[in-house]
Specification:
The structure is a homodimer. Chain A is α/β, with parallel strands linked by helices. In chain A, 32% of the residues lie in helices and 23% in strands. In chain A, strand 6 and strand 7 form a beta hairpin. The radius of gyration of chain A is 29 Å and the shape is elongated. The N and C termini of chain A lie far apart (68 Å). In chain A, 41% of the residues are buried. Chains A and B meet through strand 1, helix 1, helix 2, helix 8 and helix 9 of A and strand 1, strand 3, helix 1, helix 2 and helix 8 of B.
């Protein structure tokens, strides 16, 4: 014979029936609500039970909103995976008092049977005693209690939600040491996160030229996203930018000014990446054994090789990237901006982010998911702290209203980070709108979302496109 | 390391994350849709797999709607509990052809590597062979297939959704034999279901008088909902209405005219119900051992005793009602109109309806849930075929629009049955609107929902209220 007389449903926050966690930050009270239904008319009581990990459950009361809906909240005071569940039961003490009072109000006097019931319920005493005890008894005694949940909530630190980002290419500024010198000025302007594109050695084979030219000229430095050379791969620093000590000095300068360092995580390799020799099975090959380069037909990216996510050594590949991320965490990196995460498997991200947070729970991950909405949101659900959005291309009022409405719907699991420009995106509005456009777009980015960022040069209204119309 | 690269979500129809079944009728194609996401850009294929009970799975293809959304349908050809699930995989054959054709279109000619890949994928042959084979191979080979579901669908016969009902009190027409004589006329008018309020013996102790007067006068027949007397309880026929043969004759008359019989199922007892003596533990008592009567303070219903759903003999009580329902099923009753189901436990209804359908899968249950929306819908989810609605009180255009919008939202699990009047509800619109109001309300009931019904007298526009303003 089936279960509970009390049925709990429509619990929020809830992402895909609890498959993924809702998101919150340390210091929040997580607002929850649920529909709680039982046959008949007796009053119900309900609480939200909550805990971090396997800690002891605590609880907070829910209040009745009307129409079988209840709401409440619980505080989260530490990063990590929390869970909550709803517990509801009949408040027989309140029910008895309510029925009794309605009868008295209607002038009924033959209440001996009712008072005997009251004594059986409350124990010896009179009406005054019972009224005084009703609230406590109604909380303690939980006849027919039913539970709904548990449901997960991922709690991160505040930086996962709110922050002002500044992006720069360290080679344009003279390397990591020189960048450290501008940290006080960046902090003065209110930036919280300094984001550097890949700082690893850049491949020389098939190196691209300026503005994506197919062949590099002498002296062309190549794309920082073509990762890997004789000097090392994803775990190395390009010696032209500095060394471990320079990175440590930059991290220390940022820390001293209340800022933190974000590195790029771009999971692809130049033809000179050490792993091509050490782990050829991690890369895509043709049937004749030759290595494939990246392409999006008819476009070809001969300076890039993609990893083969269907490799037979999936464990080895995944663990290698875990080691890369942990290596940078240990060097003081607290934020990762992930390049094109939508071209790598979702289960990989879910695993990687959880693994990194086991050891460095403060780590923040920004998803550069400029892709279809279902995939953008799935990456957010799978663990990314925050996500780029299409803000960069949304300039008219109707476009912005639509964007913000969409972000509101996604808000239980996707936190936006709005960028008016990036190294490779300069919208026509900025190319043609002059200083007023730059000011307007910055204010919109900084006020429509708690996280926003700019690419260096924005503050000088640099508005010259690579080509007219690009 | 976690699971599938393909993530299936937002599958419809889906009621409370699959806790309850969606509803369909024999002969339907059940429309389904799902969001299916994988990293990257390779084309996916998907099917819906479906089966009744534990039968072999069958499948139908899904079509791509755009934006990672897929849709399809499957046929249901028998009553019972069905289930469906989504299966999706990468179509590597279509992906290869697509990439190849984009390269050719871009004028690329060095495609030896691509063709070697093609041969590895398709087997020996040329492009023509591969194109011809692509569709079949893409269906047969299912690399990395992922599944979403299964989700339940309860399939009933068409009468669960569509039918015209006529309600009458057989004692006003001269008993069951006399009612059998009017069946041809009812069938002629297009009615599908004849619904009789309780036909059981009526209690005499504390019998109510006319129009709910507290004391009966000599000759008052009492309320048919005060069930049980010396002649028997829920499984007996009031001898004043007829006997088993008369009921069988009525059932046969209905069957001969393509109609069926609906009985009332009212789970309450008069003070003279045989079960009060046989099973006192099934009823509510005060601490002094005295029997409680039904009340909704300050109202008292001294002619009614409610069952104690918290009885220690829950099994006995539930099984007794199962026996009652099966007894009437065996007498040819195929439809039950359930009185006040919202004052009995939801798990009881879920169990009872499933138990009855094991033996009589054609049985239809109508819920008289004039209660809060969350409880009305929960009864529908728990198994009732169809439900009364607030149509009776919705008369203005805005009220009707709101009602129909609400019914549309509920349509995956709640089937409405619209009644312009009932034995105890005659809205002011009908009291004051004359024949035009009766005609208008009948057309609305019959066209806003596939199921509707009237209480006898409606066809003669009987519009005299018990009291002015009642």
């Amino acid at each position: 014979m089936p279960g509970e007389r009390i049925v709990i449903s429509d619990v929020v926050p809830q992402v895909d029936c609890g498959r993924w966690p809702a998101k919150a930050c340390v210091g929040d009270r997580v607002s929850i609500a649920a529909t709680i239904v039982r046959d008949g008319h007796e009053p119900l009581r309900a609480v939200v039970r909550h805990r971090k990990g396997r800690a002891r459950w605590r609880e907070e009361p829910l209040r009745f909103l009307g129409s079988d809906r209840y709401a409440g909240s619980f505080p989260v005071d530490a990063v990590g995976r929390w869970q909550f569940e709803i517990e509801a039961w009949v408040d027989r003490h309140a029910a008895w008092l309510d029925e009794h009072d309605r009868k008295v109000a209607a002038g009924q006097t033959d209440l001996a049977g009712e008072l005997a019931e009251g004594e059986a319920l409350f124990g010896p005493g009179d009406l005054e005693d019972w009224r005084a005890a009703a609230d406590a008894l109604g909380t303690e005694e939980r006849p027919g209690a039913a539970r709904g949940g548990p449901l997960p909530v991922e709690v991160e630190r505040e930086r996962a939600r709110a922050g002002a980002w500044y992006e720069l290419f360290p080679r344009s500024w003279g390397g990591l040491r020189a960048v450290a010198e501008v940290v006080p000025a960046l902090a003065e302007h209110g930036f919280d996160v300094l984001y550097l594109p890949p700082i690893h050695p850049i491949g020389v084979t098939n190196r691209k030229g300026r503005n994506n030219a197919e062949h590099a000229e002498a002296g062309d430095v190549g794309s920082p996203w073509a990762i890997g050379a004789a000097e090392g791969g994803h775990d190395a620093i390009d010696p032209r930018l500095g060394d471990e000590d320079d990175l440590a000095a930059l991290v220390e300068a940022l820390r001293a000014h209340g800022m933190e360092l974000a590195l790029d995580l771009a999971l692809q390799a130049s033809p000179d990446h050490p792993w091509l020799g050490e782990h050829p099975e991690w890369f895509q090959h043709r049937p004749d054994g030759s290595l494939k380069y990246a392409e999006n037909p008819p476009k070809r990216y001969q300076d890039i090789h993609n990893f083969d996510w269907d490799t037979k050594d999936r464990k080895g590949l995944w663990e290698a990237f875990r080691a890369v991320v942990l290596r940078w965490c240990e060097a003081g990196v607290t934020v990762f901006r992930v390049d094109n995460p939508h071209t790598k498997p979702i289960p990989f991200w879910e695993w990687l982010i959880a693994e990194v947070r086991k050891r460095h729970p403060e780590t923040v991950f920004l998803s550069e998911a400029f892709t279809r909405p279902a995939l953008t949101t799935l990456l957010a659900k799978a663990g990314f702290s925050q996500s780029y959005t299409y803000f960069t291309w949304k300039n008219t009022k109707p476009e912005l209203v639509e964007l913000v409405e969409q972000l509101r719907v996604w808000s239980p699991y996707l936190r936006p980070n709005l960028w008016p420009n990036t190294p490779d995106i300069l919208h026509a509005t900025l190319q043609q709108g002059g200083r007023p456009a730059f000011e307007c777009r910055l204010v919109l980015a900084a006020t429509l979302s708690p996280s926003y960022g700019i690419y260096s040069g924005y503050e000088r209204c640099e508005n010259v496109p690579v080509r007219s119309g690009s």
